[in-house]
Write a structure and sequence with these properties.
Chain lengths: 331, 331
């Protein structure tokens, strides 16, 4: 099947587009009606085989899922709502059509759950590894954006969900797992593997934090919590203090790191791929946060520390301070 | 230099962003003010080493130039104006920073000339070939779009510039050239090589054709003129008749193909990478076309045939008809 045939095959698999999509797949470019009065939010992120995923550990459906999820996560971290996606598929020789179909399954699953329309893209062959490169365009009202730089001394730092699960899940896969092998018996550990394969982008939470003007700054944890704390603090020109005891370390991750004699606090702070949101909360917005919590459909929000006037980046544990560890390095 | 360092290096090289860019490179996503009342136009296209370019034939600056030019060409083919670009750079091991800088030189050259702001992107390493994947977002007024499907029987077919040059240029490079070697002595042939390396996207012409509602359908020649004629005709549910004698075959290409005993008409119809525009012109819009021609800064426009009620796709030569050849297949 050639490029055109494959594009037509993909087009046929899509759900009916919304009326706002004026021109969809199959023309030189897609054309869409923009939300009136909203700002455009644009992000792009690529998953490269051998760097961001391993086909022994993730199914094609997992890869498609994650390719869109990580981009939706970036849109959420700006307080925006994702609208349209473009898929750039760079295919190694002899990737079966069935694998492309499963990749689309995973991608369309995330699209349906986050209200994203696959509006266009590009397909090309390559002598190299599989690359799934996606662009997502979202929208946000002016003054509802959540940039990294908005934090102020005294703002509380909150993180959604739990941390460390994706890193522990990848660790388990590297030690035991290939596709088709049994998942861990421990359900907490099985959840870690699932979180590595299919992170849940916090689309609803991010949009709520923006819309209600609850957070002063926000970022996703693609490169780990320590990195996100550092980025928000540095962009905002402040420091940060994180309480080790408060960190919502995933139970499976705590067990996994503990059994290996690894410091679970440091490993969970440094581990990447969690795709939770870190945000700064001004004291005046505490009431709004309770409102957001009620509407965020059970996503746990944990206060882990605060931004400080002093520019140091400190983890407090057992009454002593230690430096914030470095973030996760993909590169 | 890691991912963050490289992104910061790229950011420092950019010209000051326009006020419409609210958040640029360095946050989770870029944020921009959209043009009021305009539709969003979105396209993505990747250049893959070994498929779309050969580093023996094109400099890093040529590759950066072409990566943006081919996307701007897609926006132009919709009658829209390009506004923002995202760059996804997938880097093989040990690509020198100087090469990335030259790639940016070429890219920023096109950006400056076509009014595009590099608003964000992503950088990742890869075990495979260099991939430069770009997304361009443009805008167009409602009812000014030029889709492929708008052609009607009796509309004239026009093509901009000349055809065949890029294919002949690539042919010359494959026979003689590596970087650093002399360019062809014949200036026409040297122009063919230049057109392969640095195609001129018809940004101004496309936007004019849309804004003035001159064309009923439009497409760029990324996969060759024959392919573009076929796509416009099939999408519009009509046929097409092309006059071989009318084709604006580049003089260098005509000579190159002629010397090799290759039919220059067929080779120029089938050859890809010209990035000219093919458009359909309703008879009532002839007056407007003269206006467009005056404003298009010397871009030659040639009537090459017409759309027909009969669904055949015919090249007329010496009083006889032959079938339209297939398009250029990258895939």
């Amino acid at each position: 099947m050639g490029e055109r045939g494959l594009i037509e095959h993909i087009r046929r698999r899509l759900p009916p587009p919304p009326p706002s999509l004026v021109v969809g797949i199959g023309d030189d470019a897609a054309v869409a009606v923009a939300e009136r009065g909203a700002l455009q939010v644009l992000t792009t992120d690529a998953l490269v085989e051998g760097v961001h995923f391993d086909r022994r550990f993730s199914t094609p459906a997992d890869i498609g899922y994650k390719a869109l999820a990580v981009n939706v996560s970036d849109i959420a971290a700006m307080g925006a709502e994702p609208r349209l996606a473009l898929l750039s598929l760079i295919l190694p020789p002899a990737l079966p059509l069935a694998d492309i179909d499963r990749l689309l399954d995973g991608l369309l699953d995330v699209a349906a759950r986050t209200g994203v329309t696959l509006a266009g893209g590009n397909v090309t062959r390559s002598p190299g590894p599989l690359v799934v490169d996606m662009t997502v365009v979202g929208s946000v009202r002016p003054r509802r954006i959540l940039p990294r730089r908005g934090g102020r001394p005294g703002d509380s730092l909150y993180v959604s969900g739990t941390i460390g699960a994706a890193a522990a899940g990848l660790g388990w896969l590297t030690e035991h797992g290939t596709l088709g092998s049994e998942l861990p018996e421990d359900p907490e550990m099985a959840d870690c593997v699932a979180r590595h394969r299919r992170p849940e982008p916090r689309a609803r939470l991010g949009a709520l934090l923006g819309r209600t003007r609850t957070a002063s700054a926000c970022m996703d944890l693609s490169d780990g919590l320590a990195d996100a704390v550092r980025q928000i603090a540095e962009s905002s020109g402040v420091g940060a203090r994180v309480a080790a005891e408060a960190l919502p370390i995933h139970r499976g991750a705590a067990g996994w790191f503990g059994q290996r004699g690894v410091d679970a606090v440091l490993a969970s702070l440094s581990g990447g791929d969690d795709y939770e949101l870190l945000f700064a909360l001004p004291n005046r917005a505490r009431g709004r946060l309770r409102l957001v919590e009620r509407q965020a459909r059970g996503v746990q929000l944990t206060r882990i520390g605060e931004l400080t006037k002093d520019k140091g980046l400190v983890v407090e544990r057992d009454g002593a301070g230690e430096p914030l560890p470095p973030g996760f390095v993909h590169f």
